[in-house]
Amino acid sequence: MRRLAVIFVTMGTALALTAAPASAHTTLTSASPAKDATVKAPSEIVLTYADPVRLPRVVVTDASGAQRQAGAARAVDNKVTQPIHGTLPNGEYTVGWRVVASDGHPVEGTYTFTVSGSRAAAQPAPSAPSPTNTTSTQDSGGSSGWLWIGLLALAVATAASAITWLRRSRSKG
User: Per the confidence metrics, is the pTM higher than 0.85?
Assistant: First the structure.
């Protein structure tokens, strides 16, 4: 019974010493135009996060679902900037965003804003090329995925060592 207690204490200590640090996903702290705001037609969308981000993707759609962003979003530290194609006509727009936080986890969200007082006539949006999946290799778990694999391997090795030790102890005694 004592040996079994030693095994469990050893395994518990090994797991406790290698516990994963808490992941701190970033959050959107501000946006321009702001959520639910009524504004003149913006030339760009600026999203600010609590922490640095990478691999940004921003899609701006009008009420018909047509995309209105121009080119790729750019991330610098904790700010993402997405240019708008042309001048937006009056109406409601939805901003959908996705970034990868510094801890490797994707974070995403949406919000709407309204354009009022625009002189631009409603016109069909430019056809947007199909987006490429730039995050497919980054979303495979990041560094925390490898950490969990390492922890599992350590737990298996500890259990195997404990079983071997227990068998040898019984055969000697």
Answer: no
